[in-house]
Amino acid sequence: MTIKVLLADDQILVRAGLKVLVDSAPDLTVVGEAATGREAVKLARTARADVVLMDIRMPEMDGLAATREIMADEDLAGVRVLVLTTFEIDEYVFQALRAGASGFLGKGAEPGDLLDAIRVVARGESLLSPLATQSLIARFLEQPDRRPTPAPERLAVLTEREREIVAMVATGASNDDIAEELAVSPLTVKTHVSRALLKVGARDRAQLVVLAYETGLVRPGER
User: Fold this and answer.
1) CA end-to-end span of the chain, whole Å?
2) Which single residue of 54, 94, 126, 140 could bond 206 by disulfide (Cβ 3.0 to 4.6 Å)?
3) Within the chain, which residues score under 50 in pLDDT?
4) Domains of the chain (ranges plus CATH)?
């Protein structure tokens, strides 16, 4: 099955380069290009893309606002957003995850890594590098006015094992990593993750990471 990709970036040369790269993959195809966040939202609704490659800084409506609109649209429930970032603005990355993005990737990434990232996100998984995720979110939350506030009621719906696994997901651990540490099968871990997603109303693992840090289940610097 061909994965349909929407490119959202205000720089035409960047979009041109991304289009050539994406279209070079036999299983990927570009179905639209947007120069503003507003255009990205409109095209997401008309082009029926599977994945939106979203820049953050765009005119009219930035990528964060566009991501929020796309994620809030029930008709676009199957659309995933992959944010392209320079990794230099930590707050933007965290806000992108809160807005519903399935992950983020640096614009300096290798071409093959970008294509693989699109495939990962299209499968409904999140693209969260363990080191990058921990570093970015931890530094953001360490700001005085951004420390997590414990919210037990948000976690009360989870079993003890589910909370344990969500905490491990927040470190960027894969299902295989978690399975090995807990001495269970990857399928068992996947089942627990799926149940946790359903119970807390999260779209994917990226949202579980945000929940874990916001509620204090995982704190910066802790493993």
Assistant:
1) 38
2) 126
3) 148
4) 3-127 (3.40.50.2300), 140-215 (1.10.10.10)
